[in-house]
Design a protein that fits this description.
This protein is 65% helix and 8% strand. It has 256 residues and is mostly helical. It has one domain (1-256).
Length: 256
């Protein structure tokens, strides 16, 4: 009898934890004023900035540190500041900083929450003009402004809580944890497409040619070759699948 009573208590506790997770998720609904999209976010912009600043040195270290050419770094800063100062990005509380990484092999660009933005020398060396650099940096600014990292963190916390509740009531925690990891580490197609669209808007506002965003997609596809997928592409939708959406965004913002 004790065993049955203990099982009932564990199930009730598990159900309570799961219910708490769903209630918390509903209470975390936040309207992003820069994208007009309602998101599940459980942290402040100050916390996003702090996470980005704390993580930036480690990310730089993983890519061989910063590229040792101040002229190239100044160039990246110039393009980044132009994009920020000409667009909605300047109205956000984020502290945008742009970092050129020394990594000569990893074709990548990424953004940490709060405004820390990185591009590797391997990717920069493939780009052919300033407009293409602006396309890459504009896309990453879109991730920051879109609060995509904060959204993934909140989703991860939600599934972690669900897993805790499930493991209390039964032995299903491993399955739920797996679901949570897939949510957190998926390719984020919607996020990438939103960032592409924001990047196009930023390019136009800053006076850059948005058609060069399409050329960036082609450069990434060519860099992949027949068998290898560059890191930048591996976490993003296939370039061919993004080009048409980019064309739609160009038509929309050039007419507005």
């Amino acid at each position: 009898m004790r065993g049955r009573g203990g099982l009932k208590i564990r199930i009730l506790i598990g159900v309570a934890i799961v219910a708490f997770a769903f209630i918390k998720k509903c209470n975390n609904k936040t309207l992003n004023p820069y994208t007009d999209r309602v998101q599940n976010i459980n942290m402040s912009t100050d916390q996003e900035i702090a996470i980005g600043l704390q993580s930036a040195p480690q990310m730089a270290h993983q890519h061989g540190g910063l590229y040792p050419d101040q002229k190239l770094q100044n160039y990246i800063d110039m393009v980044g500041r132009k994009l920020v100062n000409s667009t909605t990005a300047r109205e956000t509380p984020y502290k945008y900083e742009f970092h050129l990484l020394a990594d000569p092999n990893t074709i990548n660009a990424f953004a940490l929450p709060g405004g820390q933005i990185f591009i590797t020398y391997a990717l920069l060396s493939r780009l052919q003009n300033e407009d293409q650099v602006a396309g890459v940096l504009g896309h990453e600014i879109g991730h920051v402004l879109g609060r995509h990292s904060a959204e993934r963190i909140a989703e991860h916390d939600f599934w972690k809580t669900i897993a805790t509740g499930a493991s209390v009531g039964a032995d299903a925690g491993g399955i739920v944890n797996q679901i949570g990891q897939n949510v957190l580490l998926g390719n984020g197609r919607d996020d990438e497409l939103e960032s592409d669209k924001l990047g196009v808007r930023f390019m136009i506002k800053a006076g850059y040619n948005p058609e060069e965003m399409i050329e960036v997609m082609r450069i990434l596809k060519e860099a992949a070759g027949p068998n290898r997928t560059p890191e930048f592409q591996s976490t993003h939708p296939d370039p061919d699948n993004r080009i048409e959406k980019i064309r739609d965004a160009i038509r929309e913002y050039q007419q507005s």
